[in-house]
Design a protein that fits this description.
With 627 residues, this protein is α/β, with parallel strands linked by helices. 48% of the residues lie in helices and 20% in strands.
């Protein structure tokens, strides 16, 4: 059949030749045409591109091997077959054929099924057709663009979707949010709500367990967040540990708060990841489209909902939230406000929050500068042996002398340091400075062996707080080795205080690291004991030396019988586990007497001394006070 088509093509060319040549020239050119016929057949057969010749009805009359491969048919099966039988019914082949017959050329894209291999085997094909290469016959060249299409789809997917969770990403969210805000302007009563969700302490989990476990936890959280939604709500991942929920066409702020409440409730349930039980909590910020601010009675919800939220008060400010970036930033700002309120809470956007966020950002920038310019300093609070009534150590407490603001409260800058990761370099400086200072006192005050003061303070120790992020940091042991080597302090004089919450959330692998610290004779304390969720069985497995009784129990000893019993229980637990116990926050002689009666060995608090600068602490040592 194909030979007939090429014969027709050659005959047509011969007729064209006879009209313009004669004699010897015609004989010569006919011979050349025969060679051309052979060459055309060879090119057609060996072409890498699929080529088919078809008639006016779209039936194949000739096909090269590449076309047979593309269609998944033998030459015998393909010739005589209507080409569109192998094509997806939704493609534009029939329209292209009409255009070809009308104009002489056609291009387009079709989907071809190369045999019975299911939907996933469809090939995306680009074609270019020329009409009437001989009367009634047409030539189409087909190019398989499946791989290119899939690559484009992958690029499109990665541009708008998160590869880890499969959720829409920030770009997708902003595009969709833009459409919703435009709709809110056109439709009366159409309200858009946006929830910004930040997972707490995810960085610590990632540092402790590794990126793989962190990724699996994120996927589990994403799935659980999705269960809190109903259409047309949409969940997106907008950052490493940040998600957003777009709520379309809701009635009021309470609808968004209800979703936030469901999220908090869902996150109270533990996650099982790689055989580890993990807990997650979140801070959630809510921002609403401007129309709500014009239609809602704002003053009726200026209250706490149990999760701690506030509502926007200024229509003028809220009406500026007309762009998707503005609304996302407002929800982010509200989330930060929820974090400042104590964590695990929800806050609705209030324009005044912008000022708080700006102040916080300024404080963060100042803190970075403070680390570089050495604006931080340490104060030292005495730790007392309650049996002997004498000083046995100090707890090092960081302070910040701001060049403009003066002393900044640790309650202001420590949360920022923990959130931004600045706590790691700050903590390294605190460790080094505290160890250096104790070693300086040892050399200057306690060097004369046999002297009364050297005898009294022979075991003087320094306690340094260790944040959860520091505990999870892989270089902690090496850092401590370097600090002890640089300062010349023996490890037995250093105590590290770790909060009960940090211990509870740390992986089992942290035990190996703590054992390395014990090999260096460094002592380990659990700070704020009684306020967290540590397992007693785990506590027994960890090399802990000291339990620090939280100040809240000491403060309420006289007023609440329960606090007294908790202290009694902690003291008994410490004795049974071979640990010391330190009571924090002693402020009155009555509290001191009660603790001594209960058998508390050590204590600290304002009753003895407030935190002192280095010079005052040295003077206190020299005075050898008794209590």
């Amino acid at each position: 059949m194909m030979n007939d088509q090429f014969g027709q093509l050659t005959s047509a060319m011969k007729r064209q030749l006879s009209a313009s040549a004669s004699g010897e020239r015609m004989v010569f050119e006919e011979a050349a045409l025969e060679d051309c016929d052979l060459e055309l057949r060879t090119i057609f057969e060996r072409a890498l591109e699929a080529m088919v010749i078809f008639n006016d009805d779209g039936n194949c009359v000739a096909a090269n091997p590449a076309a047979c491969t593309l269609f998944g048919l033998s030459k015998e099966e393909l010739i005589g077959k209507a080409l569109e039988e192998s094509m997806d019914s939704g493609c534009d082949w029939r329209q292209g054929l009409s255009s070809l017959l009308a104009t002489g050329r056609a291009t387009g894209e079709v989907k071809i099924d190369p045999g019975d291999r299911g939907y996933n085997s469809w090939r995306e094909v680009e074609y270019s057709a020329t009409a009437n290469i001989v009367p009634g016959l047409h030539l189409a060249t087909l190019h398989d663009i499946t791989d290119r299409k899939r690559a484009e789809e992958q690029l499109q997917y990665h541009a708008f979707y998160d590869s880890l969770t499969g959720l829409p990403n920030r770009t997708w969210l902003l595009n969709c949010l833009g459409r919703c805000l435009r709709k809110a302007k056109r439709r009366s009563g159409y309200v858009v709500g946006l929830l910004f969700i930040h997972l707490e302490r995810f960085e610590i989990i990632k540092y402790s367990f590794g990126h793989l476990v962190g990724d699996r936890l994120l996927k589990a959280v994403a799935f659980r967040l999705g269960t809190c939604l109903q259409p047309p709500g949409t969940l997106a991942r907008v950052g490493t540990d940040e998600f957003a929920i777009l709520l379309e066409d809701i009635n009021e702020l309470d609808d968004a708060i209800a979703v936030a409440d469901r999220i908090h409730q869902e996150l109270t349930m533990p996650f099982q990841v790689n055989g580890q039980e993990m807990f997650a909590s979140a801070n959630i910020g809510i921002a609403m489209s401007p129309r709500l601010a014009q239609e809602t009675e704002l003053e009726k919800r200026r209250s706490q909902n149990g999760k701690g939220f506030t509502i926007e008060e200024s229509n003028e400010e809220t009406s500026k939230l007309e762009h998707p970036e503005d609304l996302l930033r407002a929800a982010d700002t509200a989330m930060y406000h929820a974090k400042v309120m104590g964590g695990g809470r929800t806050a609705a956007f209030d324009p005044a929050m912008h000022l708080v966020a700006l102040a916080s950002l300024q404080l963060e920038n100042d803190l970075r500068r403070a680390l570089k310019d050495q604006e931080l300093l340490l104060y030292y609070q005495p730790i007392i042996d309650l049996c002997l009534g004498r000083l046995v150590g100090f707890e090092a407490l960081v302070r910040w002398r701001h060049p403009k603001r003066g002393l900044v409260s640790p309650g202001e800058f420590i949360p920022i340091a923990e959130t931004t990761g600045l706590i790691v370099p700050m903590g390294a400086w605190i460790l080094h400075e505290a160890c250096r200072q104790l070693r300086e006192w040892q050399v200057s005050l306690l060097a004369n062996k046999g002297s009364a003061i050297a005898e009294v303070y022979s075991d003087l120790s320094i306690s340094v707080n260790l944040a959860g992020l520091q505990l999870a940091h892989p270089g902690l042991v090496e850092l401590l080795d370097q600090v002890l080597d640089d300062t010349g302090l023996e490890g037995r004089y250093l105590k590290l205080e770790i909060t009960e919450t940090a211990i509870a959330s740390a992986p089992e692998s942290v035990r190996g690291m703590l054992l390395q610290l014990k090999q260096r004779h460094i002592q380990l304390c659990i700070d704020d004991f009684g306020t967290g969720y540590s397992s007693l069985s785990r506590l027994h497995r960890l090399p802990i030396d000291t339990l620090k009784i939280d100040r809240s129990f000491v403060r309420n000893m006289s007023d609440r019988e329960g606090s007294m019993e908790i202290i009694r229980t902690i003291l008994s637990l410490a004795r049974n586990l071979g640990m010391d116990a330190i009571a924090e926050g002693i402020e009155t002689a009555e509290q001191l007497a009660q603790l001594r009666e209960l058998g508390s060995e050590y204590g600290q608090g304002y009753y003895f001394r407030r935190p002192l600068d280095a010079a005052s602490a040295a003077a206190l040592l020299v005075s050898q006070p008794q209590w």
